[in-house]
């Protein structure tokens, strides 16, 4: 991946967008970020900037009133309208404001501005990788300084947020590495495979089961699709073998260096396989799921209203959620909200075909990041916390719209 001038890249719309999308990763690293909401500050810059770029660069295929945007606006409008009948007082306002100022702009900027320009898409992936590399370096510094005897917070945030950051970095690395391997363009192949293996090691040791599982499934889907539909059938398998071998060797070596046995991922998976000792986190999630379903059955058409589930569950008027995007939408916005959400997802992916996807590393990366973020959204994150999912989906919809096929840059 040929990187642009770093100064130009760091001041680009795409890099600032990445800082906004992943602001939860570094919000606790400096008092300034805790005194002033950095996501709000960045969006105050990004939103007018995006309007200028859209007006300047739009073409006939890049319309605000496309069906993807119309379905998204209809869905978002219903979500916000549901605050009118929510039993929450303070959280519904917080949730509505965050969804309006974080999630809605993320989708619109991704669809109308970034996905419409090949150079912007390349800069976006470069920005994602650079940000992930910074977090990756801090992760290993924490491993070295504090040891690996417990679940680690990186940059003052929890393992789920860091797992999402490292997962996106790993996906970008593997996609570009695999495309170089298939195309026999192997200039930086060794470095990409080693970095990918190190990202893998970080993911299995920060403590999160969900992000690692989501990343592993997304990666296996990538290899399976390439092995089944790529003309160079042997190359993806060979790349997988090479990546797996390097990963195994590095994991063994790093475990010896850090005096670590196994991994936090394996340690946290064991209770799920133990029929005698129940896993507290899993049981809590199951309780949340059952509560959300009961809330939906009690209010099937319009739901509890935005932010209403915590009150229904007896958690008081606090910022919380059922840890599943479908159950959250069902419980708080009813069947109307669920149908609008499913229709929106369908419109965004409708018409995708494997041919254009496999020919473009940008579209492959966007699809894999969307799949990764979707699986994370099915187990954690409030609606406005799942900005990455809606943003990645906007890129897929935009790339599909433009039928862009881009070779590795």
TrEMBL record:
The keyword Membrane applies. Residues 198-342 form the O-antigen ligase-related domain. One of its GO terms (cellular component) is membrane. It is a multi-pass membrane protein. Keywords: Ligase, Membrane, Transmembrane, Transmembrane helix. GO terms for molecular function: ligase activity. The chain crosses the membrane at residues 7-26, 32-56, 68-87, 93-114, 121-144, 156-176, 237-258, 325-345, 357-377, 383-399. It comes from the Bacteria. It is found in: Membrane. PANTHER family: O-ANTIGEN LIGASE (PTHR37422:SF17), TEICHURONIC ACID BIOSYNTHESIS PROTEIN TUAE (PTHR37422). This is O-antigen ligase domain-containing protein. It comes from Candidatus Finniella inopinata.
């Amino acid at each position: 991946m040929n990187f642009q001038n770093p100064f130009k890249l760091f001041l680009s719309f795409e890099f600032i967008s990445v800082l906004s999308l992943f602001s939860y990763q570094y919000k606790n690293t400096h008092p300034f970020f805790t005194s002033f909401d950095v996501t709000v500050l960045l969006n105050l810059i990004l939103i007018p900037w995006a309007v200028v770029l859209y007006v300047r660069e739009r073409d006939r295929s890049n319309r605000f009133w496309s069906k993807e945007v119309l379905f998204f606006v209809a869905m978002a409008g219903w979500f916000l309208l549901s605050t009118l009948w929510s039993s929450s007082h303070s959280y519904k306002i917080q949730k509505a404001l965050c969804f309006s100022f974080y999630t809605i702009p993320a989708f619109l900027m991704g669809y109308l501005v970034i996905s419409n320009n090949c150079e912007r898409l390349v800069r976006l992936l470069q920005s994602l990788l650079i940000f992930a590399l910074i977090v990756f370096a801090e992760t290993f510094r924490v491993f070295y300084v504090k040891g690996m005897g417990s679940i680690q917070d990186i940059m003052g945030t929890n393992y789920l947020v860091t797992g999402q950051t490292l997962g996106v970095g790993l996906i970008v690395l593997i996609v570009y590495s695999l495309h170089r391997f298939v195309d026999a363009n192997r200039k930086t192949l060794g470095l990409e495979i080693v970095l990918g293996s190190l990202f893998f090691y970080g993911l299995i040791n920060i403590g999160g089961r969900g992000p690692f599982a989501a990343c592993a499934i997304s990666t296996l889907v990538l290899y399976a699709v390439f092995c089944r539909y790529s003309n160079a059938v042997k190359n993806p398998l060979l790349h997988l073998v090479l990546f797996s071998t390097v990963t195994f060797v590095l994991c063994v070596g790093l475990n010896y260096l850090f005096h670590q046995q196994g991994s936090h991922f394996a340690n946290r998976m064991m209770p799920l396989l133990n029929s005698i000792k129940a896993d507290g986190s899993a049981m809590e999630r199951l309780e949340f799921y059952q509560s959300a379903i009961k809330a939906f059955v009690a209010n099937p058409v319009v739901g509890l209203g935005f932010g209403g589930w915590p009150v229904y569950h007896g958690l008081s008027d606090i910022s919380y959620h059922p840890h599943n995007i479908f159950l959250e939408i069902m419980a708080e916005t009813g069947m109307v909200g669920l149908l609008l959400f499913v229709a929106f997802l369908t419109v965004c992916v409708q018409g995708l075909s494997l041919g254009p996807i496999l020919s473009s590393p940008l579209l492959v990366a966007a699809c894999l990041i969307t799949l990764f973020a979707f699986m994370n959204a099915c187990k954690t994150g409030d609606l406005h916390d799942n900005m990455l999912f809606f943003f990645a989906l906007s890129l897929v919809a935009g790339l599909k719209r433009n039928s862009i096929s881009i070779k590795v840059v």
